[in-house]
Design brief:
Elements (H helix, E strand, L loop, with lengths): L28 H8 L7 E4 L2 E6 L2 E4 L7 H56 L1
Antiparallel strand pairs: 1-2, 2-3
Length: 125
């Protein structure tokens, strides 16, 4: 005898009204493939801004052209060298600008001293 009364008896679910509300099951197979997009092509993906497609057992780049991996590595190395050279040239320009600024300030100070000396010399006469 159960402790709290009746035994567990779940309610039965009501039967479905309609098997499908879609009319796609009445369409021909070829029309369904067009409608639903079931025409599978080779797998494709996008990694790092480069499109890859799997064909004949190999991944082939679509957007990168026919560049080999050695060519890509060579271009990456060259790009790194150019970036380092660019950074070096930027620091050299910065040093030269500092030197030019210092020289200009010294020139203006010397001009002022000369003008001051001229005015003092005129006062003495």
């Amino acid at each position: 005898m159960p402790l709290f009364g009746n035994t567990f008896s779940p309610k039965k679910t009501p039967p479905r009204k309609s098997a499908s509300l879609s009319s796609l099951h009445t369409l021909d197979r070829s029309i369904r493939e067009v409608e639903l997009g079931l025409e599978y092509g080779p797998p494709a993906m996008n990694i790092g801004g480069q499109s890859w497609k799997f064909e004949d057992g190999h991944w082939i780049t679509e957007s990168g052209g026919n560049a080999s991996s050695k060519e890509v590595q060579r271009l990456k190395k060259r790009n790194l060298q150019l970036e380092e050279e660019n950074n070096l040239l930027k620091s050299k320009i910065e040093v030269l600008m500092d030197m030019l600024t210092e020289t200009t300030v010294e020139y203006h100070l010397m001009e002022k001293e000369i003008e001051d000396m001229k005015t003092q010399h005129r006062r003495k006469k």
